[in-house]
Write a structure and sequence with these properties.
Distance between the termini: 32 Å
CATH topology: Alpha-Beta Plaits
Strand order of the largest sheet: 1-2-6-3
Structural class: alpha+beta
CATH superfamily: RRM (RNA recognition motif) domain
CATH class: Alpha Beta
Largest sheet: 4 strands, antiparallel
Number of strands: 6
CATH architecture: 2-Layer Sandwich
Number of helices: 3
Shape: globular
Order of helices and strands: HEHEHEEEE
Strand content: 35-45%
Helix content: 25-40%
Number of domains: 1
Length: 95
């Protein structure tokens, strides 16, 4: 898999922004079959940074109601990546 297939999108949330400023951690939605080593290599290659640690978790899709019928969102995988001191990634510059 290419690095862009492994890293699907960054998760920009209030909690993620706080972690980015306090602990230099980034949060991504990643491919469900990717392991920590593949995620580390993909982040290092795409963003040209040094990664210290990768933590992953499987997120269960929520059950949602669509009118009378019950539906379900898909399951997905989240990765929290800790960058080395002095490294940073800017997703939205000047917004």
């Amino acid at each position: 898999m290419s690095p862009h297939d492994i890293i699907k999108r960054p998760l920009i949330t209030e909690k993620g922004t706080i972690q980015k400023e306090a602990n230099n951690q980034l949060t991504f939605e990643v491919d469900r079959g990717a392991n920590k080593v593949e995620i580390r290599r993909a982040v290092e290659k795409i963003f040209n940074v040094r990664v210290l640690d990768v933590r992953t978790m499987q997120m269960k899709g929520k059950t949602k109601r669509f009118g009378r019928t019950m539906g379900r969102r898909r399951n997905w995988k989240k990765a929290m990546v800790t960058l080395a001191k002095g490294e940073h990634v800017e997703f939205f510059e000047g917004v």
